[in-house]
Design goal:
Helices cover 29% and strands 19% of the residues. The protein has a single domain, classed as TIM Barrel (Alpha-Beta Barrel). Bound molecules: flavin mononucleotide.
Length: 307
């Protein structure tokens, strides 16, 4: 039997395949086809202190090799997560990582603090792509200083394993990651979506209600893989993701230096993609005579400090 279990920055996972934030809701709609105790974990939709309404429609559009979304982080808020979603996820045997969003440092801290020491939560993933209202709307994760300040503040108020989800929309992602590490993060999550847009040439206006959105799916896989490759030298465990559709993609991310992977857009095309990916990885290990999936981490990356 090949061993698929991994420890991602202190989060114990039965296998290394997690549902990417925002592409799986809280798992309810998928549970009939994807038993939540058979995937590595569920990363929840970004959760804010109060409910957020999100962007005007249209909010999604298909592209040549993926999709654009501009949901605007609509979510029912912390209270709903704690009272309705966490108990249900626990009843399904899911390993739960809560994705946290906020418009101010204090909002992030309040959500993190409220979730600390809740047995239903295995870890937190900070989405630092949110606009910082105290800094003119610039995303927290594009400036080393604001990324550091946010992670430092959250770190002080939670003992849960803390992953920080990096945006690829920066000049030097490694520099941001080093700040995040120095601020006390336990792991990195890479990458979030790339900024993109589409124009309706008949109406002469952007297709998305928000004009621009986030590009995901197979189109971004080489970009995401290169980010993981570069981030592997920072010395923190990595949750890799971006365009993973098949088990071979996931193996590439592990070999670049990721300890586990997040799968998002592929689930919209093939709802059981995560199960297929975990199964494909297990068969690959057996064929190769490898006992543990962890032996693949960083296997193709001489600079990796995560393996
Ligand atoms: C519809 C949609 C909603 C998303 N919502 C969130 C979110 O709430 N928080 C977050 O950190 N990332 C969010 N993401 C980004 C995904 O978690 C993932 O990082 C990205 O889509 C790249 O992976 P993929 O190519 O496998 O989809 C969202 C992506 C999509 C497509």
């Amino acid at each position: 039997m090949a061993d698929l279990a991994v420890n991602l920055a202190g989060i114990r996972l039965r296998n290394p395949v997690l549902a990417a934030s925002g592409t799986f809701g809280y798992g309810r709609e998928y549970a009939a086809v994807v038993p939540l105790d058979q995937i590595g974990g569920v990363i929840t939709k970004g959760t804010s202190l109060e409910a957020w309404t999100g962007n005007p429609p249209p909010r999604t559009v298909e592209t040549a090799a993926g999709m654009l979304n501009a949901i605007g982080l609509e979510n029912p808020g912390l209270k709903h997560l704690v009272e309705a979603d966490l108990p249900w996820l626990a009843s399904q045997g899911a390993t739960v990582v809560v994705n946290v969003v906020g418009r101010t440092v204090d909002e992030y801290v309040a959500v993190a603090e409220a979730l600390d020491a809740r047995p239903a939560v295995a870890g937190l993933e900070l989405n630092v792509s949110c606009p910082n209202v105290d800094k003119g709307g610039m995303a927290f994760g594009v400036h080393p200083e604001s990324a550091y300040a946010l992670v430092r503040a959250v770190r002080k108020r939670t003992r849960l394993p803390l992953l920080v989800k990096l945006t690829p929309n920066v000049t030097d992602i490694v520099r941001i990651a080093e700040q995040v590490r120095d601020a006390g993060a336990d792991g990195l999550s890479a990458v979030n979506t790339l900024v993109g847009m589409a124009i309706d040439i008949h109406c002469r206006r952007p297709v998305l209600g928000n004009a621009t959105g986030g590009l995901s799916g197979p189109a971004i896989k080489p970009v995401a893989l290169a980010a993981v490759w570069r981030l592997a030298r920072v010395g923190l465990p990595i949750l890799g993701g971006g365009g993973i559709s098949f088990w071979q993609d996931a193996v590439e991310f592990l070999m670049a230096g990721a300890t586990a992977v997040a799968v998002g857009t592929a689930t919209f095309v093939r709802p059981r993609a995560m199960l297929e990916i975990a199964q494909g990885m297990e068969e690959y290990l057996k064929c190769q005579g490898i006992e543990r999936i962890t032996d693949l981490v960083g296997a193709a990356n001489p600079g990796a400090r995560t393996g």
